[in-house]
Design goal:
The structure is a single chain. With 140 residues, the protein is mainly alpha-helical. It has five helices and three strands. Strands 1-3-2 form a three-stranded antiparallel β-sheet. The longest helix is centred in the last third of the chain and has 64 residues, at 74-137. The chain is rod-shaped and about 105 Å long. The N and C termini lie far apart (87 Å).
């Protein structure tokens, strides 16, 4: 049972019926059908043919509604949404790259500090060896 409930945490799980989606978005079901017909949104279909929406699809439909309400034609709204998604992906990828760079820099700094410490330890050990060799070579 808990596995079934976990699916509700998946933003791509189609858990919301058309009526619920229309109510949540404050739109008519016809608006959601028109997005499906135009290919702007692809809801999951149950075995009975009923549309089911995921949370991600609801966000998409809501954003499309906003853009349409500001006067954009559907094709323009879809393009804007696509560009926004690409920008989000690029921003996320840049953040991952920045995080990786920061981690690598920290690791490099740690390695340099360790190398410096080991170099000092090695120099001290060489100094001790030289001192011991000098003592061994001294006549008694």
């Amino acid at each position: 049972m808990t596995d079934n409930l976990r699916r509700l945490d998946d933003e791509d799980y189609p858990a919301i019926s058309m009526g619920q989606a229309a109510e949540l978005l404050a739109v008519q079901p016809a608006f959601l059908r028109s997005l499906d017909t135009a290919g702007a949104l692809h809801p999951h279909r149950t075995d009975g043919g009923h549309r089911r929406y995921s949370r991600r699809q609801l966000r998409t439909a809501a954003r499309l509604r906003e853009l349409l309400d500001t006067g954009h034609p559907l094709i323009s709204a879809q393009t804007i949404l696509d560009l926004e998604d690409r920008l989000d992906d690029t921003t996320a990828a840049r953040q991952r790259a920045d995080d990786a760079r920061d981690h690598a820099t920290t690791e490099l700094d740690t390695t340099r500090a360790t190398l410096h410490t080991r170099t000092e330890e090695l120099a001290a050990a060489h100094h001790q060896i030289d001192a011991l060799n000098s003592r061994i070579r001294e006549p008694r």
